[in-house]
Fold this protein.
Amino acid sequence: MTRPDRREATQIRALHCALGQLSRVDGSAQFSLGDTSVLCGVYGPVDVKIYDEKIDRAHIEVKFRPDIGVPTTKDKWTESAVRQTFEQLILAQLHPRTLVQINIQVRQADGAVDAAAINAATMALVDAAIPLHSMVAAATCAVLESGEIVVDPNQEEADQARSIHTLAFENKTTEGPAYVDSRGDFTMDEYNRCYDLCATSAERVLAFMRSAIESKISKEAKLSTT
Amino acid sequence: MTDVRVVVPGDIIDTSISAEDGGEETTVLRLGPGLAQAGEEISASAAGVLHNKEETHQWWVVSNRRRYVAAEGEPVVGVVVGRHGEGYRVDIGSAQDALLPLLAFEGATRRNKPNLTIGAVVYARVVVANSVMDPEIECYNSNTGKSEGYGELTGGFMFKCSLGLARHLISAKAPVLNALGTQIPFETAVGVNGRVWINTESPETTVLVVNAIKNSEYLTAKQCRQMVKELLDKQ
């Protein structure tokens, strides 16, 4: 069955990212999966409200704003899920009694928004040089009515899917994914196939992130030695 | 002796030492910024250029960032934002404001001490900096008792830049400062916290110097000199 944009079933859309475009935050990144585009700005470590202060670690806060309309319960859920993921990854013990704030703004939504948000957040945290245990990349799979599984669905495919699975993996060997979100009706077999496909796609995204970061840093390193 | 390569968070660093060093002895590795240890495994926690000094077994990652984390002994430029009985509260860009004791100036006594107003700019040295306490600074070197250039900075203009640019400026290798210095007399104080203070004869010249420094971050030495020349010609 051909997909609306004629991609292969396991093909992700064009990846694009830009680091450090915002001048007033400590780190920023824009990440795009095809037409889905998410911007993330990170502050940290900065001063924290007494209410949120933790004596042994930094307080992590995530703010997620959709492209259209005010944030709803669904967006609050995304905030909470992204926060739990990065609480595992940020080395918060290095900065007790401070705040790390991750601000995510969806610029354009065309499916796989959560995955793009996690990818943008990872790159923004790297741009801000917040100490991280590892980098994390997310990918989405949709199980269509026919039982066929497609990777990185756009909004049209996602609306017609029987279930959607977003998984994120670290660039270190670990026991499992860093983030899992599955919605809809699915069998364990379908989930396992999605798991494998997402793992492969996440690896590709990690390689892309690495090359983007390496090219930026090596360009800057050359300049400082001339 | 440096060995450079670009690392990203999560990369495992192979710090094994060659057998000729005496493989049976345990060697103490000194891990600098950007590296984290979990058991026997050492991995990068920041993206940047990995450096290694073999003689002293030091490893560290150089990465550019905008947010300052205070470290002992570093020179910083701060702005006074408050005053308590014991000292001043100074904004140095770290998560918590720094404490500057009232007597932390050269030759200060209870009867004879400087009186800083809110908004005053100071060049100070970080004395206490760790993750659990608010940073403390002093406007003289308490080990020698001399001011060594620290103290209040009067007049002039302070602007913010990235920590990498600040380190570059303070290392005196920056071509932009040399290019400007041959044409314009100016005073500057650079803090490793990403804040630079400039003082010249007129506001127009100050703006020119500030713009030149801000522009210079991603330029080669030749481009720097060209850029400074263009700014001066336009004046």
